[in-house]
Design a protein that fits this description.
It holds the Pfam family Rv2525c_GlyHyd-like. This is Glycoside hydrolase domain-containing protein. InterPro entries: GH, Peptidoglycan-bd-like, PGBD-like_sf, PGBDSf, Rv2525c-like_Glyco_Hydro-like. By secondary structure, the chain is an alpha/beta fold. It has 2 domains: 2-190, TIM Barrel (Alpha-Beta Barrel), CATH 3.20.20.80; 206-272, PGBD-like superfamily/PGBD (Muramoyl-pentapeptide Carboxypeptidase, domain 1, Orthogonal Bundle), CATH 1.10.101.10. Helix content is 33%, strand content 18%. It has an 8-stranded mixed β-barrel, surrounded by 4 helices. α4 (109-122) links the parallel β4 (95-99) and β5. α1 (13-21) packs parallel to α2 (42-50) and α3 (71-87) packs across α4. It starts with a strand and ends with a helix.
Length: 273
């Protein structure tokens, strides 16, 4: 399990290093227009990673009442979030967490589902995450409308979902001079960035690390990177990513505690190599 925080404060490499020295492995930051007071920039993302921390991305534009959650809003949020994620260098196939930042009643769940269905219809590059209460996590998990789950203890009445990839267990704390919320990161696939301390595998020399090619490797892919993947997962290295290679990738992901989706994105790649 990794230790994380989320915050609205823009970080420098120095402040990120202070957080790292306090045991923080990953930082949750808001994505959005660079001019916003609380959003992460590409330079900040690079500084956080140089400090040895990974990142999880949060999209939030006042989702604090039922009226916010419409299909049209879901489409807009999906498109904007993907654009801003790309601008900060977030790798494809990593998640963006869309927030339900209030105590949604069961009567609200229908419109919230429609919002996430709209996000699903427009999300091609990034995986879909949900931030919300225990009831919200359980509902969307049951409907298959998200890929990753970030639960807050708020409005959860002591319940903790077994599906939560990230669990926010305290709000409004000070750490290294920064106001933060405290998180437990149970699934390393929920975060992104090159820091690899949370993944246990044999040490290799820097020269042996194979750089991520910058795009998803999936069924239908061909070429040298497919051969590398096939060799790593024990599939026949023919350079064609077919059903048998996908099956081998899924098996590898399950063995290493990753999301077994058969897609070789940045997280799986960094474990492979």
């Amino acid at each position: 399990m990794m230790s994380g925080i989320d915050c609205a404060t823009k970080l420098t490499e120095q402040s990120a290093r202070r957080l790292k020295s306090q045991g923080v492995d990953a930082v949750g930051r808001y994505i959005g227009p660079a001019e916003s007071w609380k959003t992460i920039t590409r330079g900040e993302a690079e500084a956080i990673q140089r400090a040895g921390c990974r990142i999880f991305s949060i999209w939030e534009t006042r989702p604090t009442r039922r009226a916010y959650f419409t299909e049209e809003q879901g489409k807009k949020d999906a498109e904007k979030a993907a654009r801003y994620a790309g601008q900060i260098g977030q790798p494809e196939a990593s998640p963006i967490f869309f927030t339900v930042d209030y105590d949604a009643a069961p009567d609200d769940f229908g419109v919230i589902r429609a919002y996430f269905q709209a996000i699903r219809s427009r999300s091609q590059k990034y995986r879909i995450g949900i931030y919300g209460s225990f009831r919200m996590i359980e509902d969307l998990r049951g409907k298959g409308l998200a890929d990753f789950y970030y639960q807050t203890y708020a409005w959860s009445f002591g319940h903790e979902s077994r599906h939560a990839d990230i669990y926010q267990y305290q709000n409004n704390r000070m750490l290294a001079g920064i106001p933060v919320d405290l998180d437990r990161i149970r699934n390393p696939s929920a975060v992104w960035g090159p820091a690899r301390s949370a993944v246990k595998h044999p040490a290799v020399s820097p020269a042996a690390v194979v750089p991520y090619p910058g795009h998803l490797i999936r069924r239908g892919s061909r070429g040298r990177d497919v051969v590398r993947t096939q060799n790593a997962v024990g599939a026949v290295p023919d350079g064609i990513f077919g059903p048998k290679t996908e099956q081998a990738v899924r098996a590898y992901q399950r063995r290493h505690g990753l999301v077994a989706d058969g897609l070789v994105g940045p997280v799986t790649w960094h474990v492979l190599f």
